[in-house]
Amino acid sequence: MEALRLVLRYIHLVGFALLLGGFVVQYLSAKFRVNGAMLAGSAIQVVTGVVLSAPFPKDVELDHAKLAVKGVLAVLIAGMVWSVRKKESVAAGHFIAIGGMTLVNAAVATFWR
Ligand code: HEM
After folding, report:
1. DSSP annotation of 85
2. How close is the Cα of 109 to the center of ligand 1, in Å?
3. Of the residues 12, 51, 76, which should be mutated to test ligand 1's pocket, given the most ligand atoms within 8 Å of the CB?
4. Which ligand 1 atom is nearest residue 6's CA?
5. Containing domain of residue 47, as a range?
6. N or C: more exposed end of the chain, with fewer CB within 10 A?
7. Residues contacting ligand 1 via CB (< 6 Å)
8. Residue 74: predicted pLDDT
């Protein structure tokens, strides 16, 4: 069970890399549109995050308030990514909010102890 949690955390970090990396590529090229990496990353974060919120192995300590904050943010991010996936161009505010909320969620994961 411990190994399964490590594998899931690893996939969770790959999802984070896809989401933030996809965002940064678009941001630096000044083409504000959603790419495949962001679509995959936002979905991977929600799915792996939900599974990581399950109490396994038995002695794992979970912070439910922290997980609730992360869950709400991740669902908002995924909604904001998937709802504009077919658009050639996304409003700057909408696009930058996706990257900003991703960074906030990583900060919550890291600093909320
Ligand atoms: C965009 C969305 C998300 C981002 C950027 C993100 C980011 C991260 C990062 C960077 C870590 C590693 C932190 C560390 O090991 O110190 C982490 C771990 C974790 N995240 Fe997320 N996360 C997201 C969504 C979610 C969601 C939706 C949930 C569940 C509601 C969740 C639950 C967890 C859990 C339980 C861990 C700890 C895994 C473990 O140590 O076993 N995450 N997240």
Report:
1. T
2. 5
3. 12
4. 41
5. 2-111
6. C
7. 5, 9, 12, 16, 19, 45-46, 49-50, 52-53, 67, 70-71, 74, 77, 102, 105-106, 109-110
8. 98
Number of domains in the chain: 1
Q: Residue 75 — very low, low, confident or very high, per pLDDT cuts 50/70/90?
A: very high
Could you read off the pLDDT of 31-41 as tens digits, one per residue?
Answer: 999 999 999 99
pLDDT given at position 85: 98
Pocket mutation for ligand 1, best pick of 7, 13, 52 (most atoms within 8 Å of C-beta)? 52
Cα dihedral value 8, 18, 37, 105, nearest 10: 90
- For residue 13, report the distance from its CA to the centre of ligand 1, in Å: 8
